[in-house]
Amino acid sequence: MSGIITVGLDGTDHASAAADWAAQEADRRGASLRLVHAWVWRPTDVVYVGDRAAEERWVRDMLAEARSRVVGQHPTLDVTTELLVEDPVPALLAEAARADMLVLGSRGYGTLTGYLVGSVSLKVLRHAAGPVVMVGRPNPGAPERTPEVVVGVEPGQTGESVLEFAFSAAAGRGATLRAVHAWSVPTVLAWSPGSLYLVPEADGLEQINREVLADTLKPWRDTYPQVEVVEHFEIGSASEVLLSSSARAGLVVVGRRSHEEGLRRLGPVTHAVLHHATAPVAVVPHDCPAS
């Protein structure tokens, strides 16, 4: 496995955590690591202590320091840096289009804090052509994480690219993959008399849903026979079930629809997981080309 993993840096602690996570991932995949910062000088009429040269020097020093840190931890890793003279959103979208994965920092962690994803990151997440991983600062007091990869699965709706990313991530880590499917009992009006007649013969709605989930995962189990898969099947809100299932996971994988407009491009479940998950979250477009 090889390729390029790109990290967007801004000099904050959570961006540094994103670089550390991405360096581990690049080392694991045999990929190269690219550290970038998007910057445009905008002088104003307000008296400012610094100047263009000083600000650019700070940015270049920040990139050099980040490179020095990750190379110290991963001596054989191919690490490059680049200062992108462009606004952050278009610059990061262009990086996401040519990298195997774009990694950004999230502002914090914890289900009570909420709304931890900045406006730039949200815009990138809504429109990125490839996978974007959000990484928060490590929490020293949090329970130890397992390597387990958790993926939210909605049979018939989850794109193949989402499952491919999740299975590949689990295989690379030698980790278990937990495929989470939350479901609810539909109202009687949502079922035709014929459908209701079939329910008892199939051992009820639960059995039907289990079979659909198993069928959805089968091609990927065949492709990745080394990956142990746990089918997590639970009645409840999809976002709540996914968040509770991933409390100690090493990575959470969710999908993003490309045809929806506005904020809902992320979908309500993906949006909730991004804001409240304590683990790194990979958002994969449903129509993302295979890596």
Automatic annotation (TrEMBL):
<comment type="similarity">
    <text>Belongs to the universal stress protein A family.</text>
</comment>
<dbReference type="Pfam" id="PF00582">
    <property type="entry name" value="Usp"/>
</dbReference>
<dbReference type="InterPro" id="IPR006016">
    <property type="entry name" value="UspA"/>
</dbReference>
<protein>
    <submittedName>
        <fullName>Universal stress protein</fullName>
    </submittedName>
</protein>
<feature type="domain" description="UspA">
    <location>
        <begin position="3"/>
        <end position="135"/>
    </location>
</feature>
<feature type="domain" description="UspA">
    <location>
        <begin position="149"/>
        <end position="285"/>
    </location>
</feature>
<dbReference type="InterPro" id="IPR014729">
    <property type="entry name" value="Rossmann-like_a/b/a_fold"/>
</dbReference>
<dbReference type="InterPro" id="IPR006015">
    <property type="entry name" value="Universal_stress_UspA"/>
</dbReference>
